[in-house]
Amino acid sequence: MFTIREIENIYKSHKDPQRAKKMSAYMRNNFEFYGIPAPFRRELSKAYIKEGKKAKSIDRTLLTDLFKNKYREINYFGLDLLKAQSHLLTIDDFYNLVGLAKIRPWWDTIDNIDSIIGGLGYGDKVFEEKILDLASNDNFWLRRIAIGHQRKYKDQTDPDLLAKIIEINLNIPVKDKDEKFFIDKAIGWALREYSKTNPAWVRSFLQDAVNDLSKLTIREASKYLD
Questions:
Q1: Buried (b) or exposed (e) across 149-186, using 16+ Cβ within 10 A?
Q2: pTM reported for the whole predicted model
Q3: Looking at the record's lineage, which domain of life comes first (predicted)?
Q4: In angstroms, rounded to a whole number, what is the distance separating the alpha carbons of residues 192 and 220?
């Protein structure tokens, strides 16, 4: 199996300081970048991801190191590897994934991990209990995962669970404008995705909750509604 040093070396050899500066600025200067565009980054790491996909088990130490790396492209590689190995994940990995999500969290990693976690236990009551617990977590990034975990379920979405998670979050006081923005956006995005499958339900939900939802949430949720 490859090492993190191999990935660092290949990315470092293609660094672009000017692009890196712009990429960091886009992410509010929260992270350092090599300055490698996503398509090129994936091309550089394609062979390694292919190797990881063939692995018989997940190297959790390697994943943790990838997520902890100071360069954001290395974190993205960790996400790509996790997706490639998702067939090896079970509900027993729930809190391992939550642990990864808590490492250097921002929307770009959270909005990938949510669907990976969502793939662990569709229709499983134990999984639902874990998700509902996450929905009320003090860490708003983890709550965002709970809100968005069904985004790819389409017609298998559990609307009652979605409504319950949203209601939980509407009753949690936000600490600052960032928390409010990212939670409101997540609720709107989750509703918008479900509106592609069940617009009538989403329209009804918005009507019933119009006084509780922010303008941002309603705007996001209404994007594909007539």
A1: bbbebeeebebebbebbbebbeeeeeeeeebeebbbbb
A2: 0.95
A3: Bacteria
A4: 6
Among 111, 104, 34, which residue's Cα sits nearest to residue 67? 104
Per residue in 122-156, pLDDT (tens digit) is: 778 899 999 999 999 999 999 999 999 999 999 99
- Are residues 6 and 48 in contact, defined by beta-carbon separation less than 8 angstroms? yes
Cα separation of 97 and 121, whole Å?
Answer: 13
In single-letter form, the type of residue at position 100 comes to L
Question: Smallest Cα–Cα separation from 182: which of 174, 171, 173?
Answer: 174
DSSP-derived secondary structure for 4-67: HHHHHHHHHTT--HHHHHHHHHHTTT-SB-----HHHHHHHHHHHHHHHHT-SS--HHHHHHHH
User: d(Cα 92, Cα 5) in Å, to the nearest integer?
Assistant: 29
In this predicted model, what pLDDT tens digit does every residue of 168-198 receive, in sequence order? Answer: 999 999 999 999 999 999 999 999 999 999 9
Q: Which of 185, 111, 200, 90 is nearest to 155 (CA)?
A: 200
3-state helix, strand, coil in the chain (%, to 5): 70, 0, 30
Question: Which pLDDT value is given to residue 1?
Answer: 82
